[in-house]
């Protein structure tokens, strides 16, 4: 059975991806800050916060043991919204937004790569940098823009894996409770994003996918 | 006389901007990690590293005293190149690249804003995120992409100042000694960038300027 490693599995999208992956016949391994609700639903889950280096290293070791070191699908669904004008944003708050949206992703990549054999697939849930560069979203926009460029470079460097940057429009998740404006009409549902993740995985679509 | 505050004044571009600003009749205030060569040329200069919070706060106080609290032109010319594939880049190295290219900019903005009255002009020397997302440039590309989005949001939020994002192509500076490939043919000279900075300032051009 193919293993899928999902980072950020209790977020609105991560949870849907987890369910979609299981329904598709993959064996999901869930990493989340609070894995208890996932374990209650029968998922193999591990507690980790991507901003904590030791957590990420330990989570990768756990995933190695669970999967026997062969993860076919790796998904980064961690993200955090911010809300406030940059003039009122401390450097600490800006750093924290970068830490979860970019540095955490790199930490997870760094520790996971040995588990992803050639042919494995890494999918990042990103955003359209130009669309989210909006008032009161500065820290979030900077972090997601950094991640977007990071993914582009990683895709060019990791020639033997498939790397996909799934640029999402608005998705109806609890993240929006922290946004400076209401969820736009026509926002996608998390299960639709999960369907896109699985389609991208089946079709081995690399590069930027607009969703 | 109008004051111009230049952050990163000993870099290849910063140095040229400093000279251009003085030639144009503005009174430049230079902030640099090593201000001694600038002082030897008669510039008012102050030692600060933008990655050190105390340095930035002290530099802003110095600029306040020098300028009487009225900076007409503010230029952020700090930047650092990185070189290496992401798989070999530690999270510390990635964080350091973000710290100098993004967080340092925010720190400088944060402490400088009280010195920039309504109508003042902030010019950032940025890059084209899409063009620099190249192998071995991951940390640099992520930092500059974050800065690019940061500037876009700042420009929308600071309605009473002019904010310009000067997206530079390759410029012939010592920064390129650390790049993973040679300086492209047709690269611009620092004095040309300084001319563009002054033109943008005179014409009060806001938003993205491709240079």
What does this structure look like?
The structure is a homodimer of 211-residue chains. Chain A is α/β, with parallel strands linked by helices and 211 residues long. Chain A has a single domain, classed as 3-Layer(aba) Sandwich (Rossmann fold). Chain A is built from 7 helices and 7 strands. In chain A, helix 1 (12-23) packs across helix 7 (190-203). The first copy, chain A, is globular, with a radius of gyration of 16 Å. At the A-B interface, helix 4, helix 5 and helix 6 of A face helix 4, helix 5 and helix 6 of B.
Parts with pLDDT < 50 across at least 5 consecutive residues of chain A: none
Give the class of chain A from helix and strand content and strand pairing.
alpha/beta
Mean pLDDT of chain A: 93
- CATH homologous superfamily label of chain A: NAD(P)-binding Rossmann-like Domain
What is the correct CATH architecture of chain A?
3-Layer(aba) Sandwich
The proportion of residues in beta strands of chain A is 15-25%
Number of domains of chain A: 1
Total helices of chain A: the number is 7
Question: Which fold name is given in CATH as the topology of chain A?
Answer: Rossmann fold
Strand order of the largest sheet of chain A: 3-2-1-4-5-6-7
Number of strands of chain A: 7
Helix content of chain A: 40-55%
Largest interface: A-B, 43 and 43 residues
Main sheet attributes: strand count, strand direction, barrel closure of chain A: 7 strands, parallel
Order of helices and strands of chain A: EHEHEHEHEHHEHE
Please identify the oligomeric state: homodimer
Give the overall silhouette of chain A. globular
